UniProtKB/TrEMBL annotation:
Superkingdom of origin organism: Bacteria
GO molecular function: hexosyltransferase activity
Organism listed in the record: Sulfitobacter brevis
Keyword 4Fe-4S: no
PANTHER family with a match to the protein in the record: SULFOQUINOVOSYL TRANSFERASE SQD2
Coiled coil residues, start to end: none
Protein name: Glycosyltransferase involved in cell wall bisynthesis
Keyword Membrane part of the UniProt annotation: no
Key words, A-Z: Transferase
Length: 358
């Protein structure tokens, strides 16, 4: 059985690594593991990030040309369903609804969001297309409860909503860390929410006992100098590791004592899954999205600020037994909820609900 797969924000074939590309590839692997043949239907990138109405119209015009090609291809390949990953107002699915309708096949979405506030203003054309695409979906797999709130509110009567928790692209857990190396932070260095997390992290580190801690930071980006400035003068050691490939980062996870990352406005954060899989306790704030991928524990609230994060970090640093207990709970949580076999079963059930049996 052949399925069409499309990611309007970033193609899984894109040469530049990113979280979106990794998730798209993981979804393809999960579907292929069920026995499906997956066709990457299109690499059309619909993202328009500046709110340029003229560019949006140009993208819409290009999509119309692509639709004609895809209908012909879909008939030749005998696609059983169309699956779109990450439809939202800056990168709407301009292809799937029309192609699925022409081929009379089910149309499914994964990790879609609704944003009625964008239906007026600079992204109006794109936002309207994203809403129309969500309306057309027979099934939407939602990733977080925060996304589910608006999806439920606006769902057409016959649409099915299925919870698909974020997952790692692996069947088993890696080896557990002995939790003996320095603390670890993993995050891209860019303006906005990432820089806000780094600022909160620096404030947290300033509250730890002087000259008793070392933090390794894996990540790079255009805000590197500002991150370095935030960390300058702290009474501990900060080691900048730069951007690491997945294998090298796995080696770092395999030794670290804990992961610390506040998670300002993270959708959920794959870094939390990766760290917990290696048995790292996580120091993060209790935020929507983030809390859904963390093993249950008393995480500090946003209102607790850096003091709450510092208290949690210091409590784990001071007690090997607490670290071991928290790390074991983290691995068990990932094993139960966030590996590829669990995701594959959820995808299989969602497809079966619209008559596609794998």
């Amino acid at each position: 059985m052949r399925l069409a797969f499309y990611a309007p924000l970033k193609s899984p074939a894109h040469p530049v690594p990113s979280g979106d590309r990794n998730i798209a590839r993981a979804l393809i692997a999960a579907l292929a593991g069920l026995g499906a043949e997956i066709d990457l239907a299109s690499t059309l990138n619909s993202r328009e990030g500046t709110g340029d109405a003229e560019k949006q119209q140009q993208i819409h015009a290009a999509a119309q040309v692509e639709i004609a090609r895809l209908v012909r291809t879909g008939r030749q390949q005998d696609w059983a369903a169309w699956i779109t990953y990450h439809n939202y107002y800056k990168a709407p699915d301009l292809l799937g609804p029309a192609v699925a309708r022409a081929l009379r096949i089910p149309y499914l979405q994964i990790e879609s969001t609704r944003a009625h506030s964008r239906l007026e203003g600079q992204w109006a054309a794109h936002a309207a297309a994203a809403e129309a695409a969500s309306d057309a979906a027979d099934v939407i797999f939602y990733v977080t409860e925060r996304d589910a709130e608006t999806l439920r509110r606006d769902a057409p009567a016959q649409q099915r909503l299925v919870h698909l928790p974020p997952f790692l692209d692996r069947d088993t857990l890696p080896a557990a860390s002995p939790l003996t190396a320095p603390m670890l932070c993993v995050g891209m260095m860019r303006d906005g929410d990432k820089l806000a997390s780094y600022a909160l992290l620096a404030q947290t580190l300033a509250l730890l006992p002087a000259d008793t801690w070392t933090l390794q930071i894996a990540g790079d980006g255009p805000a590197r100098a500002r991150v370095a400035a935030l960390m300058a003068g702290l009474r501990g050691e900060v080691q900048f590791l730069g951007a690491l490939d997945s294998n090298t980062l796995a080696d770092i996870y395999a030794q670290a004592s804990l992961l610390i990352w506040p998670g300002v406005n993270e959708a959920f954060g794959m870094v939390y899954l990766e760290a917990q899989a290696a048995g790292l306790p996580v120091v993060a704030q209790n935020r929507p999205g983030v809390r859904e991928v963390l093993a249950p524990a008393p995480y500090p609230s946003v209102e607790d600020g850096p003091q709450g994060l510092a208290e949690m970090a210091q409590g784990l640093r001071a007690s090997p037994a607490k670290r071991a207990e928290a790390g074991a709970a983290a691995r068990a949580w990932i094993q139960a909820h966030h590996l590829r076999p669990q995701a594959a079963r959820t995808l299989q059930a969602g497809l079966a609900a619209v008559g596609v049996t794998l």
